[in-house]
Structures are given as C-alpha cells and as structure tokens.
Amino acid sequence: MDRATFAFSTAFFRDFGNPSPGALPGGHVDFIDKVDSFTYSDFFRDYLIPNHPCIFSAKFTEDWSSRKNWVTWDGKPNFEHLLQNFGEAVVPVANCDVKEYNSNPKEQLPFKEFVEYWQEYIGNSYHSSRGCLYLKDWHLHRAFPEQDFYTTPVYFSSDWLNEYWDAVASDDFRFVYMGPKGSWTPFHADVFRSYSWSANVCGRKKWLLYPAGQEEFLKDRHGNLPFDVAAPDLRDKRIYPRSSQSQPPLEIVQEAGEILFVPSGWHHQVYNLEDTISINHNWVNGCNVALMWSFLQDELAAVQREISQWKDPMDDWHLQCQLIMKSCTGIDYKEFYNFLKVIAENRISVLEKGLDEESSSQDNSKAAISTLGMLHAVFDLKRTVKVLSSLSANEDFRKLDLSSLSPSPEALLQHLEAAIDTALL
C-alpha cells in the first residue's frame, strides 16, 4: 500500500452520508498555506466530506504559466499576450447590466473585440454605452488543448464530470472568466449542485456564499430565488417573506493567485473588485454524487408539476418530461446512468487490470486514479453502487425504455458489487 493510499484508507471506508449543508460557526473559512504538508486526505476529511469552503494561498498557483504570462508586472491582465495567443477565438460574453430570465444575456464575440472593448472601458473610467461586459464560461481548455496554462491541483483531481464528458467528447466543465472591475455573476448554485474551484490568475473577487439549504429562506412568495441578494427589495417581507430567517452570507475576498473551494449546493454571488481573470472547474465525485442524483430528481419533479395537465392525453408524457429536463439541466436519467457506468467501468478496469505507466499516462482518468490510489477507486465504486441502486429502483427511470442501455442496470450493479468484493479480499 503506497503512502497516499494508507493516509486516507480509513476515511474511505467509514460510512459517510451525503455532504452536510456545511454551515460554519462564526463564518470562519480556513486559509491553506502549506503546499508541501497539506495532503489530499486532509482536504478529503476536512473540506470535501464536511462540505466546508476553504481558500488555498497563491503558493498553489505560482508555477502556472498563466500566472506568469497572462499578467503584467503590476498585476493587470496582459492584453498583448492574450491577443497574440487567443485573438481569433470567439467567446461567450454576458452583459452584467441587463437581466433576462433571471440571468445576464450572452452573445458570441471575437476575443479581440472583447479585449478592445475592455481596454476602452478602462480608459473611460469603467463606463460604456455597451454596458458592463463579462467574458464567462469560456471553454478555453477545450478550444486550445495544446496550451498548458494551468495544472489542476491534486485536491480536485477526482472529477467525474470532466472524466465523463471527456470520454463522450461532447462537453466539459472547465472555464475561463475575464472581466473588468464591476462585472459580476448573479445569485446561483453550480450545475448539478457540483463542487467548484475558482483560481484568480489576476485581480480580486468578492464572494457572498450561503450554505446549502439557506436559499430556501431567500425565495419570494412564488418560490423564485432572487437575482441579486444584495438588492434592497430582499428585505421587503411582502416579496420575500422569510428572508429575515436566513443567515447572513459568508463574505470572502479572494486575492490574486488564490483558489476558492466552493462546496456542493452552496448558492453564491460573485463580484470582480478589479480587472480579473479566473479559471474555474465544476466537479462531482463520490462525495457528492448522491446530491447530484437528488438534484435531478427534484428537477424532474418540477417539470412534471409544470406539465401535469398534459399527463393523460400525452402517450409519451414521461419521455417528454425527460426531454424537457435535459434541455434545462443538460442531462436526463438515461444519460445519468451512462455517466455512472463510465465512471464505474474506468475504476473496474483499473482494479481488474492494474495500472501500467503507459496507459495511465495516456488516459487522464486512469492517471487520476493512479495518483489517488486503488482504495479511492473502491470508494468511488461503493458510492456509485448506492446511487445506481437508487436510480435502478426509481419509478420514473423504470418507466423509460431501458433496452438500449448496455449492460442493463441489474448486470452493471452485479459487476460493481463483484469488483468491490474482489478488491477487498
């Protein structure tokens, strides 16, 4: 057993439940400064399982090429370098001054046009007739895979979302954000109630975070969440009758180079205090996959309520509900099954065939499993079994045509349980 595996093997076989809401006494957030001594098992035990936020110091990103090349000597965005490398790209840009269906509307712009706007915006004392534009959710890693501008810290390497979407080659959840001082992101929780990590390449951000569950107190009389939790009308009990019951948000100022770990299901609102560039990943793993499954069930229930009047006259009502849910969330129950299958089969392959250096160096998922150890693979399988068992027994899942799923859910469960038993011998 290698040292890393030994260090957290005990934790992996404890019967952890779902991540807790993660409220912090006194609003304290730990600051992680010791690169050499802070281990993955420390992060797993103290932050992933309790679902607590933390901040990693700039020491954890000081070797990134983006920290060296995307930033000028005085800590500002290096527009000249960025234009040389990405000038011809087309990027998604939101207008922070406009509200459209509880979000900021986006348009696709040439990157060089956005940079030109940004420079003019700075020169005009941060004003423009075009509003405050914010480059958001840019899949830069996918668009320029040959460029090694950062390295995912080991603490975030058990990343099932990107492992799956890399495997099916259809999407990813790795993003770059670039925006001027004053740009911001409205109140939200991350996709699938995932964890996220966000690193400031340059600039500073202010975060307002609410532990999971607190958002229920912030809903208006119709059950809708606020667009802006800092708006004065949130204190109007006629509109938001339970807002006074909410805890105050956890306020964090994130400095240049620092990484913030955002727990699963925590709603948040974010402001750029300076001209800022950041790198962000959304990620799910064995610690919070049950929350992802709960989120999907809630989303389907909401769709079913919305179109309940069409249940009787519509022969394929259950299928239509799945289609609507996928259009809103990006995934339906059958793809969630395939998601679990890919994750499970990757780990079964490692347990059955072992890790050879050549294959693991060519496969990012195997490389991550190799780094974290065999017992982590077993932990992942145990968590997958729990969620897959629940999915397989789910009434809405069983009403779908499952003949296209290979292997069948029952066969996959048997395979997983056998692989776990064999690994533990």
From TrEMBL:
| One GO cellular component term | nucleus
SUPFAM superfamilies hit by this protein: Clavaminate synthase-like
According to the UniProt entry, its GO molecular function terms are:
2-oxoglutarate-dependent dioxygenase activity; catalytic activity, acting on a protein; metal ion binding; sequence-specific DNA binding
- Write down the PROSITE patterns for this protein, in alphabetical order: JMJC
- Give one Pfam hit by family name: Cupin_8
Q: Give the catalysed reaction(s), semicolon-separated.
A: L-lysyl-[protein] + 2-oxoglutarate + O2 = 4-hydroxy-L-lysyl-[protein] + succinate + CO2
Xref: InterPro entries: Cupin_8, JmjC_dom, JMJD6_ArgDemeth/LysHydrox
GO biological process entries: positive regulation of translational termination
Q: Which cofactor does it need?
A: Fe(2+)
Q: Does the keyword Iron apply?
A: yes
Q: Where is the JmjC domain?
A: 141-300
Which UniProt key words apply to this protein? Iron, Metal-binding, Oxidoreductase
Transmembrane region(s):
none
UniProt family annotation: Belongs to the JMJD6 family.
Task: Specify the protein name.
Answer: 2-oxoglutarate and iron-dependent oxygenase JMJD4
Supply the source organism for this entry.
Answer: Bombycilla garrulus (Bohemian waxwing)
Q: What is the lineage of its organism?
A: Eukaryota, Metazoa, Chordata, Craniata, Vertebrata
